Amino acid sequence: PDTVRLQGVGFGYAETTRVLRDVNLTLPAGSFHFLTGPSGAGKSTLLKLLTLAERPQSGTVEVFGEDAGSAPRSAIPHFRRRMGLIFQDFRLLDHLTAYDNVGLPLRLAGVKDEVWGPDAEEMLTWVGLGQKMDVHPPALSGGEKQRLAIARAVVTRPDLILADEPTGSVDARMGERLLKLFQALNKLGSTVLIASHDEALAERSGARVLRLEGGRLTGGEA
Ligand code: ADP
Ligand code: ADP
Q1: Gap between the Cα atoms of 10 and 97, Å rounded
Q2: Contact call for residues 39 and 212 (beta carbons, < 8 A)
Q3: Is the CB of 45 under 6 A from ligand 2?
Q4: Ligand 2, residues 55, 61, 88: which to mutate, most atoms within 8 A of Cβ?
């Protein structure tokens, strides 16, 4: 089964029409793709269609084998529960410690305290924040916030991981380390899509590379 299937998708904003034109994209379950393209090409917009934050103006968006593009707003949580989202602006909860930020999605999913605690610790250690568990986000560096956002997004082992420029705030070495983390999660079964303008990282990753330019997507057919 395919995790994502877009057919003939067109989308534009009121002030920026025709951001995406006739986009066809298949992400088979368990696949790993990079989405590249210059700034303003529509990478974030394409992610928003997958998270159901925006709806296609033409064509169809299927996620987890279901019609997501025309699902009612009330169905959005049903889709998002199976996704791990890494936003460009992190969206961390500043009043919670790093530990509680990572534990929150597990608690919301009803995981028992004695289970989510060790899971949160393990994930924080994995992203190199084992010594910063009790720190609040405002006291973290940009790269640390980025790693915390990734830990929180993936701790529930989501079926689909969508990341918008997840290596934008870290140096090259940390970028490679985060790439390895995404690859490990992919091996555990998550379908992964990483939007990045870093063509070199995309090429080195060995993942399939999709390119957006002039509203058109290339490399998207399975
Ligand atoms: P990328 O992620 O590749 O940098 P975006 O998807 O953010 O590209 O943006 C694609 C185009 O849509 C750009 O021209 C951008 O200015 C425009 N755009 C993005 N969001 C909005 C919005 N909310 N309203 C109007 N135009 C937007
Ligand atoms: P809105 O608040 O208008 O619904 P979103 O919350 O969907 O918009 O997105 C706002 C910003 O979050 C975008 O500029 C984009 O960078 C980022 N974003 C949106 N969807 C995703 C995603 N699936 N993964 C990572 N980042 C995303």
Answers
A1: 41
A2: no
A3: no
A4: 88
What is the CA(162)–ligand 2 centre distance, in A?
10
Query: Which positions ≥6 away from 75 have C-beta within 8 Å?
Result: none
Q: What confidence score (pLDDT) does residue 221 get?
A: 77
- Of the candidates 79, 24, 33, the one whose C-alpha atom is nearest the C-alpha of residue 182 is 33
**What sign has the CA pseudo-torsion 129, 166, 150, 189?**
negative
- Distance from the CA of 162 to the center of ligand 1, in angstroms? 17
ipTM of predicted complex: 0.76
Cβ atoms of 211 and 181 within 8 Å: the answer is no
Question: What is the C-alpha to C-alpha distance for residues 22 and 10, in angstroms, rounded to an integer?
Answer: 5
| DSSP per residue, 153-189 | HHTT--SEEEEESTTTTS-HHHHHHHHHHHHHHHHTT
* Ligand closest to CA 37: 1
**Segments of the chain scoring below 70 in pLDDT:** 222
> Residue 131: what pLDDT?
98
Tokens of 180: 């390895």
pLDDT at position 222, please?
64
> How many angstroms does the Cα of residue 40 sit away from the middle of ligand 1?
6
Under DSSP, is residue 221 helix (H, G, I), strand (E, B) or coil? coil
Q: How far apart are CA 130 and CA 99, in angstroms?
A: 9
Tell how far the Cα of 164 is from the centroid of ligand 1, in angstroms: 13
Which tokens go with 194? 């990483």
